[in-house]
Design a protein that fits this description.
- It contains 5 helices and no strands.
- By secondary structure, the chain is an all-alpha fold.
- The chain has a single domain, classed as Four Helix Bundle (Hemerythrin (Met), subunit A) (Up-down Bundle), CATH 1.20.120.1630.
- Helix 2 packs antiparallel against helix 5 and helix 3 packs antiparallel against helix 4.
- The two termini are 23 Å apart.
Length: 176
């Protein structure tokens, strides 16, 4: 439990709570804030709250799958021992990051902050570079042909409509 908490505090909590809070507190003079009058303000707040909640639920589901199925954490220093290709991972290769991005987008809508929105884009770009340059090559080395099959059929960012089922039957059940 301690290793999961450490990974959560070190990574998503920093990204979703600490950085946006620092932006709002320390960069407010550079932030382009959009303001709406009542009741129009309820529109971005409602969308933002839905994205924040939905993103959190997706992220939490993925973190649970990493612990339960993958027998590891979301942290690169304590990775999963098994390839996780169940639940949302059958539709998209990075649903946990998609959940974090949804939370950040929700925060930017709720706060009306262009800088938090810019942080969302920067976070996605950094993750894209990390996945392409480090994470995916490492997964190919660790999980071999099973990951290559998965990678060939499941997109990195835009979910496929139907869930992928490994025709070899070795990956879809969480085995790696």
């Amino acid at each position: 439990m301690g290793r999961h908490l450490t990974a959560i505090l070190a990574l998503p909590f920093m990204v979703v709570a600490v950085v946006p809070t620092a932006i709002v507190l320390f960069a407010r003079e550079w932030d382009t804030r959009w303001t709406l009058e009542w009741p129009a303000v309820l529109i971005p707040w409602g969308f933002g709250a839905a994205l924040l909640l939905g993103g959190f639920l997706l992220w939490a589901w993925c973190a649970w799958l990493f612990a339960r199925v993958g027998r590891g954490t979301l942290a690169p220093w304590d990775p999963t021992q098994r390839l996780v290709v169940v639940g949302p991972y059958r539709h998209v290769r990075n649903p946990m990051i998609s959940g974090v991005l949804a939370m950040l987008l929700g925060e930017s809508l709720i706060l009306g902050s262009a800088l938090v929105l810019a942080w969302t884009v920067a976070f996605w770009l950094l993750n894209h570079l990390w996945f392409v340059g480090s994470e995916e090559p490492g997964l190919r080395r660790r999980f071999g042909e099973a990951y290559q099959r998965y990678q060939a059929h499941v997109p990195r960012w835009v979910p496929r409509w139907s869930p992928w089922v490994d025709p070899a039957g070795t990956v879809s059940c969480g085995n790696g």
